[in-house]
Amino acid sequence: MSSLRELFLRGRTLLGRLPQADPALESRLLLRKAAGISESDALMNPERLIPAAAERRFFDLVEKRRSRVPLAYLTGEREFWSMAFAVFPGVLIPRPETELIVETVIAMSSGRRERIVDIGTGSGNIAVALAGELPNARIVATDISRRALKAARLNAGRRDISSIAFVEGNALAALEGMVRRGSVDFIVSNPPYITVSEWRTLEPEVRGHEPRRALVAGPTGLEFIRRLVDGSRSYLKPGGHLVFEIGAGQADEVVSLFKGGWTDIRVGEDLRGIPRVVSAGKARSAA
């Protein structure tokens, strides 16, 4: 049998040539997963001997990672808003930049009994984060993928959150008969915004494993966003807001999609200074 330290070092070496990876972090996370131990156990007992079965599981995970399976799919979770969210193949992996959506809504929220709609909820990361920060809110979270909704319900259940109604359906069409028009304070979304040509250039972790329809919008990358902008106004209250993520370089084109009936159009930057989140209010005089 090998010790935690020995396995960690061997895993770090094997993962050393993965592009855009942190071999030490990934080796540690995969070892914890294989051995079924906590981070504190790993830190406090580095000489602990690991059973042969766990050692085999560890090297199996390492080889899968070396074949470019996303780390989150191997560990079964990804951190978002300081919470661990369950993810599995077929469910979009949360990204740190998406936290800007949560920050934007919190900054604009009254904290009262508001209605929030999350279009394309994926793992439920945005909806669950908002439910935790805005406990008075009533949230409807939609997705076309049953697999994604399974993950979202799991993540809400882990935190005993009952204020989210999960609905299967395609984008805003899922709200028909579920949400009254003109009743929503916030519509939020991390929509597909990657172009077909961009998809072909993405790293194997994304292109080979994550759900394409959650990422690729079409030839221009704006197909889903255009429908979101066009359809959201009828569901928002006057003074309500649409808040959504965009891709790098899309800000000007996206802002141009907002015609009459919108006000207070803003673009927020992520931590790298990239325009990442667009917010716009429904004019109070708009029908």
Features of the shown structure:
single chain; 287 residues; alpha/beta; Helicase, Ruva Protein, domain 3; Rossmann fold; 2 domains; seven-stranded mixed sheet; two-stranded antiparallel ribbon; 13 strands; 23% strand; elongated
Summarize the structure.
The chain has helices at residues 4-14, 23-35, 39-44, 52-66, 71-75, 99-108, 125-133, 146-158, 196-199, 204-207, 223-232, 251-255; strands spanning 2-3, 49-50, 77-80, 83-86, 115-119, 138-143, 164-168, 184-189, 194-195, 216-218, 236-245, 262-269, 275-282. With 287 residues, it is of the alpha/beta class.
Number of helices: 12
What composes the largest sheet? Answer: 7 strands, mixed
> Architecture of the largest domain, according to CATH?
3-Layer(aba) Sandwich
**Regarding CATH, which class of the largest domain?**
Alpha Beta
Shape, please?
Answer: elongated
Kindly give the count of domains: 2
Beta content: 15-25%
CATH topology (level 3) name of the largest domain: Rossmann fold
Q: What is the H level of CATH, i.e. the homologous superfamily of the largest domain?
A: Vaccinia Virus protein VP39
Which series of helices and strands comes N to C?
A: EHHHEHHEEHEHEHEEEHHEHEHEE
Number of strands: 13
Averaging pLDDT over every residue, what do you get?
A: 95
Helix content: 25-40%
N-to-C CA distance: 70 Å
> What is the rounded Rg?
21 Å
User: Within the largest sheet, what's the order of strands?
Assistant: 7-6-5-8-11-13-12
